Structure formats: C-alpha cells, structure tokens
Amino acid sequence: MAFKDVVDILGGVDIHLNKPFIEDQQWVDSGDAGPSSAFFIKTETATSSAGVTQKQKWVFEIPAGTSHLDGNTALYYARARYSSNDFNRVERQQQLLLAIKDRATSLGILLNPVKIFELLDTMGKNVRTDMSLGDINNMIGLSKNLDFKNINKKVFDTTPEGLLYSTTNEKGAYILLPVGDNYDKIREACRNIFQ
Predict the structure, then answer these.
(1) Among candidates 163, 188, 190, 159, which has minimal Cα distance to 177?
(2) What is the block-wise mean pLDDT of the chain (195 residues), using blocks of 10 residues?
(3) Domain 2-150 top-level CATH class
(4) Domain limits of the chain?
(5) What does R_g of the chain's alpha carbons equal in angstroms?
C-alpha cells in the first residue's frame, strides 16, 4: 500500500494531538493493515440475568501530545471513522499529508536521490498517471518554490458553523445538503479559500 510505504520510507511522521485519539469500534481484531503498537486488547465485563460475560476487543489509541507514527499506525489513524465521523477522518488525513510533507522537506528528501528513487518506485507501483517524466520533473521543481507554511484547507462539515446539514432522502438514505438549501455559501468558500 503506497501510503504506508511512503511513511515508512520517510522513517515515520510526527503528529500532535490536543487530546487522545481512541478508535474502539472499527476493528474486531488487530486490523487488516498489519501490526501497530497503537493497538491494545480491552476486556469488557457485562452482567445480566444469564450471568457474567467477558468480551475482548481491539482498541486503537494514540495519546495526546506529539507521537511518531510508522506506516501501519498512520494508515489506521487515517482510516479510523467509527468512533468519530467522516469529516474528522478527512481532517486526520489532511493532518497526515501535511506531516508527510513536513518530514520530506525537513529531511531534505527532495535532495536525496536514493530516497527519491524509493519514493518514485513505491508510487510507480501504486499510482497511475498520464503525466510525462518531464511534467513530473517540472512539478518537483515547482514544489521547491512553494511556501508550504501557508497552506489553506477547508473541510465542509455539519457542525453548527458548517456549510452542510445531514438528512435522509425519500428512500431513507443519509445525505448531505447545503445550509439554506442553496450552494451560495459553498461557492463563496471555494472562491475565498485562495485569498
């Protein structure tokens, strides 16, 4: 999987959390992307008229503060969605992409031919593009002049300040619609994100 391989080629990434991240609902066992030290087994005890039962489940947890994630742990963090929601997952994915960028630029990866070869080899096995090698080289050249400290991002969500609300359609399917039932505020947000 390209994502976890890229993180591992970079030697892992650092993220900072203001509060612990806990996913205790998504994975029945230790997950499907391989081992991660962020998993532990939690035993829950329930008492009913039938007696006492114990159930063990896998819990994925990253503590508050700064954590260094390997590829598997970063992938689980990016995929987790049951204990939060898809909007939170998008924010975590953006956080990880910025962490990958920070790690690559801080280590001088773009100046290290061996690391570039490893990254291109991994990407070549997992990404399809119609860009020529010349176009890719030009894009890498442009990236050297970008101000990575000034990246704007926006997640459209259903928070009270958000631009969407959730409802169901006539068939009972969960859908998102724009607040005010028009797209004016969404169009404005898209126009203004680059200003």
Answers:
(1) 163
(2) 89 95 74 62 71 75 93 91 84 93 80 81 82 82 73 82 91 91 91 77
(3) alpha beta
(4) 2-150, 152-195
(5) 21
